[in-house]
């Protein structure tokens, strides 16, 4: 079924060339270049579905939520149940959301977007910064000065390019308040990916991924997955520019 | 770039679409993520003012052996040390449960099951530590360590 769909899409992709004329892919309008396939026409162009399995999530303790008392009602659809007061995520739902998020990340990386990682848990700050460095992207794991996005041109004294995607490895400042960058990204029309635990609010996050956002093993796994997705997107971008130079 | 900063109204996409429709931004200046979002929209629309989901009671996760577990715990046998570095290792409670099932199959009386399986697991544990102590490598004996320390600053 899926294969048939892909074949149909392949024949139709010639028609959709106009869609590709974004600022990052200007060369495509040249008709002499042999017809390129459009990654957006494929359901999973970067093959992100094979980066992880549900078993990997389980081993990384992604299914552990907080206790029932701190539950945010918006997180209810993502729960599997409660084990003696501790909430447990349904990893099938998590996997679906995570694959969507990874696919989106890979596409943004392919289009040359700037990606910024966020995390306010000092225990995991180093690994997040290290991952961002290894991807060639950015991270913000320290105190958030208000206005970094909303007043950027003034704060940095020059016209500032904001990130094209914000990845939140935890969306809370502390157990009570949400990270201001979640709100500010929404204000500045920047899509967000966020790991939301049972005590977080997923409403403003564009691609929420329900899962444990505290355990270092889980954060390590997320970092590995996002790094892989970004590197796949960038590798494809490199291949594309070499073919068309 | 012209844009609305009212994040609670609509979603980032509806706000961009509004600007595109009314000529606030030119189609060529649309955000880099716009086409990707349109091709792969999220499973739930990221709207701030989304209605709360139905509040259904949360399903409790319980197992059949929880009844037996409770028996051990109420008699003070459940709490053994757990090696958190090896995820494959069996916990104390699991060993007790195994022993319980084994003894039950052998036909031990219901009233004696808890005490007997706890005793069996204790013997098992003692045997294991004895085995571990006898198998300890010879190199750690005191004399060899001091021999080694004497050579530590010698040039090779």
The radius of gyration computed from the alpha-carbon positions of chain B, rounded to a whole number of angstroms, is 33 Å
Shape of chain A: globular
- Topology pattern of chain B, helix = H, strand = E: HHHHHH
What's the CATH C level of chain A?
A: Alpha Beta
- Provide mean pLDDT of chain A, rounded: 87
Estimate nothing, just give the exact number of structural domains of chain B: 2
Order of helices and strands of chain A: HHEEEHEHEHEHEEH
How many DSSP helices of chain B?
A: 6
Assembly status: heterodimer
Q: How many structural units, i.e. domains of chain A?
A: 1
- Terminal CA distance of chain B reads 71 Å
Residue windows where pLDDT falls under 50 for at least 5 positions of chain B: none
What layout of secondary structure does this protein have?
The complex is a heterodimer of chains A (245) and B (156).
Chain A: H1 2-12, H2 54-59, E1 64-67, E2 79-83, E3 86-89, H3 91-110, E4 115-118, H4 125-135, E5 138-140, H5 152-155, E6 165-168, H6 180-187, E7 192-196, E8 207-210, H7 216-243
Parallel strand pairs in A: 4-5, 4-6, 6-7, 7-8
Antiparallel strand pairs in A: 1-3, 2-3
Chain B: H1 12-21, H2 34-39, H3 66-74, H4 92-106, H5 113-134, H6 142-150
Give a verbal description of the structure.
- The complex is a heterodimer of chains A (245) and B (156).
- Chain A is of the alpha/beta class and 245 residues long.
- Chain A contains 7 helices and 8 strands, in the order ααβββαβαβαβαββα.
- Chain A has a single domain, classed as Glucose-6-phosphate isomerase like protein, domain 1 (Rossmann fold, 3-Layer(aba) Sandwich), CATH 3.40.50.10490.
- In chain A, strand 2 and strand 3 form a beta hairpin.
- Chain A is globular and about 60 Å long.
- Chain B has 2 domains: 53 residues, no CATH class; 75 residues.
- Chain B is elongated, with a radius of gyration of 33 Å.
- Chain B starts with 11 loop residues before the first helix and ends in a 6-residue tail after the last helix.
- Classes of the chains: A alpha/beta (245), B mainly alpha (156).
- Chains A and B meet through strand 2, helix 3 and helix 6 of A and helix 1 and helix 2 of B.
